[in-house]
Amino acid sequence: MVAMDPMTLELAGQPFLRGLRPIHLAEIAACATIVSFPAGQLIFREGDPATSFFILRRGRVALQLVVPGRGPTTIQTVGEGDVLGWSWLFPPYRWQFDATALDLTRAVALDADCLRRAMEGDHELGYHLMRRFAQTISDRLQATRLQMLDVYGHAPGR
Fold first, then answer.
1. What pLDDT is attached to residue 125?
2. For residue 4, pLDDT beyond 90
3. Are 46 and 96 in contact (CB under 8 A)?
4. For residues 78 and 145, is the Cβ–Cβ distance under 8 A?
């Protein structure tokens, strides 16, 4: 068994990365730092550059859209073990939502440039991460659909 550094061990325990090979976890760990956000802090704003993504270790974050005439509308709340942000994957690399910490939130932040280089250099790593992000994106789209049904009281377009 190969010895893992503390960040690699941290990542190995995260549901989003579970099952990745140790070499892939080490590549991801090279791009990672631990961060904290106090309750109420805006983590990112729609339209700003998406330079990282986060794996939440503790706390909750509201994903919000600003709806004209309604103000900020929470689309989904994510928490421990969830991924926050996928906009770093696709040009023009701009956030699609606002994200605000609802309580003290601790996370692993992953540098987007570093991780894109790692994925480009190791296509197997890129494949495994893209599969995981595709599932996350699908889940978020479904949550948005359900939120729209709740807000408007019926299926969109019907």
1. 96
2. no
3. yes
4. no
Residue 83: Cβ within 10 Å count? 23
How far is Cα 14 from Cα 80, in angstroms, rounded to an integer? 9
Distance of CA 32 to the CA centre of its chain: 13
Gap between the Cα atoms of 148 and 143, Å rounded: 9
Question: Do residues 20 and 79 make contact, with C-beta atoms less than 8 angstroms apart?
Answer: no
| pLDDT digits 0-9 by tens, 65-107 | 888 888 888 888 999 999 999 899 999 999 999 999 999 999 9
- Please compute, for residue 147, the number of CA atoms within 13 A of its CA located in the half-sphere on the CB side: 16
3-state secondary structure of 20: coil
Cβ burial of 131 (10 Å; 0-12, 13-18, 19+) is exposed
What size, in residues, is the chain? Answer: 158
28 and 11 Cβ atoms separated by less than 8 Å = yes
